Amino acid sequence: MAMTNRERILAVLDRKSPDRIPWIARLDLWYHARMAEGNLPARFRGMSVVEVGRALRTGNPARDGKVFTVRYEGLEVRSERAPGVARQRFITPHGEVTFGRILSEKVSGTTDQGLPLEHPIHSVEDYKVLEYIAEHTFYDPCYDEYLTYEAAVGGEGYPMVSCGDVPFHYFLLHLAGYNQAYFEMVDHAEEFEHLLTVMEQVERERLWPVVADSPARLILHGVHFDSQMTPPHMFRKHMTPYYQDFSALLHARGKTLAWHADDDSQAILAEVKAAGFDMSECFCTAPMVEVTLEDARAAWGSDVIIFGGVPSIILEPGYPEAEFEAYMRNLFRVIAPGDAFILGVADNVMPTSIIERVERISDLVEQHGAYPVQPY
Fold first, then answer.
1. What pLDDT is stored for residue 103 in this prediction?
2. Has this prediction a pTM greater than 0.90?
């Protein structure tokens, strides 16, 4: 009897052999763009994104699991909307900061979070405000919500729970912004180090226990680590100690730690393994970035599960059909016999992707994905 996608994923997490490699594609961007533009193919009319995935024979990514809600005390949070922009103002006794996101028509339907526009750090005084926000942030368990979601997903997938980002990378991406972050780390070194210490302590004391005690198993904590922005020496200094402790806590509870890997990770493959990660989710490969599946297998063996391997660019109209077929043939060769691998698209089936290629991958998985995988 064939396994369900849930059973296949759990087998991979347990380092066991599924009946075939799991194939789980993220269709959100393609689906919501088609809905926004009113050009969903006729055969999918009236279907939800999960139903479209079912029709395409790809499992449910189930990335909406939640085990906590965030609560703030001693400060005011105001959400504001202006044309094309969404802002959050955090008002504290030490002053206020603003996070802003672009909500342009160009990204309408393709993302529900917008694109970063404004970062809260503009002067050295803002560090105190951000410390105050961190110190007054609390994480309240909502385990029943997770269990309800897990039951709804059923056999079509296995829930992944996002727990935000490691403080150092959160600083780079959201607090200072990539363009300014490394200047801040030099110009305001003392304030930067102190803010990072406070943020890490709050997460260790308040976030980690809620996650560790939760019924969720697959935990995503960390996004977009990149060889340039989080190079090996900075990874080892600001991220490895944090993750080694967090992964040890999760492993003691039988949980799996993943990071969202849709950037070029070629220079940090060794750091990812040393930090204690069990999975690289949405793992992006050449020709979109420098790193290849071969590189990852050489660095990780089967110690770090690869969830991905299909760069979204090979689904685009401009990518020749013969090269798409050659890429997929090589993928099956590299992953054989299929250990520690979940096939997925990095990071999404994009709005302009050829949806028939997703179906073609479903065919290939059914034809050649049985464990042990044999090159064809």
1. 67
2. yes
